[in-house]
Write a structure and sequence with these properties.
The complex is a heterodimer of chains A (135) and B (144).
Chain A (H helix, E strand, L loop, with lengths): L1 H9 L7 H17 L5 E8 L7 H6 L4 E5 L4 E3 L2 E3 L1 H14 L4 E6 L5 H13 L4 E6 L1
Parallel strand pairs in A: 2-5, 5-6
Antiparallel strand pairs in A: 2-3, 3-4
Chain B lengths: L1 H5 L7 H17 L19 E2 L10 E5 L5 E3 L2 E3 L1 H15 L5 E5 L5 H13 L4 E9 L8
Parallel strand pairs in B: 2-5, 5-6
Antiparallel strand pairs in B: 2-3, 3-4
Helix pairs in contact in B: 3-4
The chains are: A alpha/beta (135), B alpha/beta (144).
Chain lengths: 135, 144
């Protein structure tokens, strides 16, 4: 004991950092490798038509714009059109009124991707009143 | 010169260890080990939608997944439409019908399968439904 005390008094006890740095670097490499960037998601909100809609309120509003989605593609006011044509059509209407009701009619066999495309176009032109009908 | 020879030149490790610990803490905090969403669902692009953040997704948010074949799941747990109806009824009893419902449906899903989910929601009194789309792709997989 006496010998140990004598030995420690003069020297500084140094902690070996090497193993800790090794472990820490291993951890760091693990986290860097496992890190992956997440996608950014968006939400597109629409309402389903309520059955007890007030008729007076409905007549006060602008006439609805109908966009149908079938297996063949999009129909804007019952006319078959491409996505850019639909985009232009909605853009034109949004210039008159942003509150006009847009009724999106989907057939049973249409794909969900097309519905999201139409909703995205409506969001792009800030149309507020979106409603989804299923046929 | 004589002085340098006798003394050992030691590098100060403290700042480096500080930085490395900071990095480790950052990675531990940002790491998500388990992903509880269905990875097979490919979403449609929706660049102009409202960005989903932690702020506009309160804890009451219900995210319903519909895969390519129309199978319904919540947090990757498969459900039947009647199970979903039960969950929605409980939610409506607890929080009213104003809680946000997100439908995360595959872009290849037929509308009739999405309609089935929407019908269950409307039957429970939830009229406002949101569809999840991809705004910005970062994970590197095309179409996710």
């Amino acid at each position: 004991m006496a010998y140990k005390k004598k030995a420690n008094r003069g020297e500084k006890v140094e902690l070996s950092m090497t193993p800790m740095i090794d472990v820490v670097f291993q951890l760091l490499i693990f986290f860097v490798v496992t890190l992956k960037q997440e996608d950014i998601f968006a939400k597109l909100t629409a309402a389903r038509p309520a059955p007890n809609q007030n008729k007076e309120e409905a007549t006060k509003q602008d006439p609805p714009i109908t966009v149908s989605i079938g297996r063949e593609g999009f129909f804007f006011n019952d006319r078959l059109c491409s996505e850019p044509e639909l985009d232009r059509g909605i853009e034109r209407i949004s210039g008159f009124s942003k509150t006009a009701m847009v009724v999106i009619k989907c057939t049973q066999d249409s794909t969900h991707g097309n519905l999201v495309k139409v909703l995205n176009i409506c969001y792009k032109h800030k149309m507020e009143n979106l409603s989804i009908f299923s046929m | 010169m004589a002085k340098l020879k006798s003394e050992e030149c030691a590098m100060d490790m403290t700042p480096m260890i500080d930085v490395v610990f900071q990095l480790i803490i950052f990675f531990v905090v940002t790491l998500k080990m388990t992903d509880d969403t269905n990875k097979d669902i490919i979403l449609e692009e929706g660049k102009d939608g409202e960005t989903l953040t932690q702020d506009n997704m309160p804890p009451t948010t219900l995210e319903i997944e519909v895969d390519e074949f129309g199978k319904i799941s919540i947090h990757n747990a498969k459900l039947s439409p009647s199970d979903l109806a039960g969950i929605l009824r409980n939610r409506v009893n607890k929080y009213g019908n104003e809680f946000p419902v997100l439908i995360r449906a595959d872009k290849r899903t037929q509308h009739k399968d999405v309609k089935r989910v929407m019908d269950v929601c409307t039957a429970s009194g939830v009229w406002k439904l949101s569809f999840v789309a991809i705004q910005e792709q970062k994970a590197g997989k095309k179409g996710r």
